[in-house]
Specification:
Keywords: Carbohydrate metabolism, Glycosidase, Hydrolase, Polysaccharide degradation, Signal, Xylan degradation. Belongs to the glycosyl hydrolase 10 (cellulase F) family. Residues 61-374 form the GH10 domain. It comes from Oceanitalea stevensii. By secondary structure, this protein is α/β, with parallel strands linked by helices. The chain has two domains: 14-42 and 383-427, Immunoglobulins (Immunoglobulin-like), CATH 2.60.40; 47-378, Alpha-Beta Barrel (TIM Barrel), CATH 3.20.20. Helices cover 30% and strands 23% of the residues. The chain has helices at residues 56-59, 79-87, 99-102, 111-123, 148-165, 193-201, 203-217, 232-243, 264-275, 313-331, 366-378, and strands at residues 17-25, 36-44, 47-51, 92-96, 127-131, 170-177, 222-227, 250-257, 281-288, 336-341, 384-387, 393-399, 401-407, 410-416, 423-427.
Length: 430
């Protein structure tokens, strides 16, 4: 394949904004001349995501009892409060399909609970993503007892089942996760079956298995290759996967910054390295800490274990400043299509780190407020009254996304889909 040239960054975010002349017509099709109309943004085209783990109990009517999640989460009685905070900023929810937790006993998957949660988000206008279909970490223990050939067939069946059961509700998946390390992953207690499968058949055939089973089950699904290893090893894997003819819809890039914010220069240089493949880039797992940073000498973040890791006032101010810098810089790169922050609250945060945007008591941190100001104020067109000209036209400028146009009790939907969009037409209906 011939990689495309990196896309130039634009801090003005002009590539995220449309300036369109909109012709407004009434129910009879005639232009509404010299009429006041109200235009308001109702959604972003860019995917501002977060995990939805904390809201699984709420979506299932669970208001008390233990938190049932592989990585923990907020107490069920905080559900309504956290849901309001979540829905006020984020538009894409990632739900957990870690195989060991989703199907701890073979043949007994937690389908209904996750399906109710996915529908809960969908009913509120949120796009839902599943994470992940194939991964060596948190593979179920019962899989370990099977011969490798059977592991492959059971994995195929697992992918078909999940993609099929959730089609129409979840149509975006991390098809396979962390393949760079997959065949070399070492567990001191025992080797998991997915690592064994990947070692025996190779990385590219394992990626092919995951993508082709998911694609065959839901041809319209958006499938990601996702990894935390952002080195040249991942670039070589992407090259090999694409050269093998495997259709990848987007590349997932994890950025858990437990040792401190990387800074704009390093982050954008990394994005440029992967933008050359010409695929949309999803920053799938982003964290910034609001407490003490992990020491820089730690190589494997999982090795850092402390009894308490609190959020601090100084750390919260730093996190708020860094989250603004992080989102501004990433949106300046045209290849970046989505950013998923990895955690709303500190409860159940990965490694126990103070990475959430909401404190354990449910109060928003400064980083939450800072991100909300970007998403719902600076990058948002509030309800604005405009007057059409003699031909029923108004000029609308706003971030790419969905809008409503209303006048005299009638309304219509307006989509601003591309920065080069120069015109649009809507027809109001009561």
């Amino acid at each position: 394949m011939t990689p495309s040239a990196p896309s130039p960054v634009d801090p003005s975010l002009a590539h995220r904004v449309a300036h369109a002349t909109v012709t407004v017509r009434g129910a009879d099709g005639a232009p509404l001349a010299d009429t006041e109309v109200t235009v308001a943004q109702v959604g972003h085209r860019f995917a501002f995501g977060n995990i939805g783990f904390d809201l699984i109990p709420l979506a299932n009517g669970e208001t008390s009892g233990p938190v049932e999640s592989v990585f923990g989460g907020a107490a069920p009685d905080q559900g309504e409060h956290l849901a309001a905070l979540w829905l006020d900023v984020f538009t894409t929810a990632t739900l957990p399909f870690y195989w060991a937790g989703f199907e701890p006993q073979r043949g007994r998957p937690d389908t209904e609970r996750l399906l109710r949660t996915a529908r809960w988000f969908q009913e509120r206008g949120v796009t839902v993503k599943g994470h992940p279909l194939a991964w060596h970490t948190l593979a179920p223990d019962w899989l370990r007892e099977l011969p490798t050939a059977e592991v492959a067939e059971v994995l195929r069946a697992r992918i078909r089942r999940e993609v099929g059961d959730f089609a129409g509700v979840i149509d975006t998946w991390d098809a396979i996760n962390e393949v760079v390390i997959m065949p070399d992953f070492v567990n001191e207690e025992h080797e998991n079956a997915i690592t064994r499968l990947c070692r025996e058949q190779g990385r590219v055939p394992t990626v092919r298995l995951a993508f082709e089973e998911a694609r065959a089950t839901n041809p319209s699904a958006t499938l990601l290759l996702n990894d935390f290893d952002l080195s040249a090893d991942y670039e070589r894997l992407v090259e090999a996967v694409l050269e093998a003819g495997i259709q990848v819809d987007a590349l997932g890039l994890q950025t858990h910054m437990h040792q401190g914010y990387w800074g704009e220069e390093k982050m954008l240089a990394m994005v440029d390295r992967f933008a050359r493949f010409g695929l949309p880039l999803h920053l799938t797992e982003t964290t910034l800490l609001s407490g003490d940073l992990m020491p820089p000498e730690i190589v494997d973040l999982n090795d850092y274990q402390v009894p308490s890791w609190p959020s601090t006032p100084a750390g919260e101010e730093r996190q708020a400043e860094e989250i603004v810098r992080h989102y501004r810089s990433l949106l300046s790169h045209p290849s970046v299509q989505a950013i998923t922050y990895w955690g709303l609250t500190d409860d159940g945060a990965w490694l126990g780190a103070p990475a959430g945007l909401v404190r354990r008591d449910g109060s928003p941190k400064p980083a939450y407020e800072a991100l909300r100001r970007l998403v719902k104020e600076e990058w948002w067109l509030p309800a604005t009254t405009l007057r059409t000209d003699a031909e029923g036209r108004v000029r609308v400028s706003g971030f790419l996304g969905d809008y409503s146009v209303a006048a005299d009790g009638a309304a219509a939907d307006l989509a601003l889909d591309a920065a080069g969009q120069s015109s649009a037409e809507v027809r109001l209906r009561r």
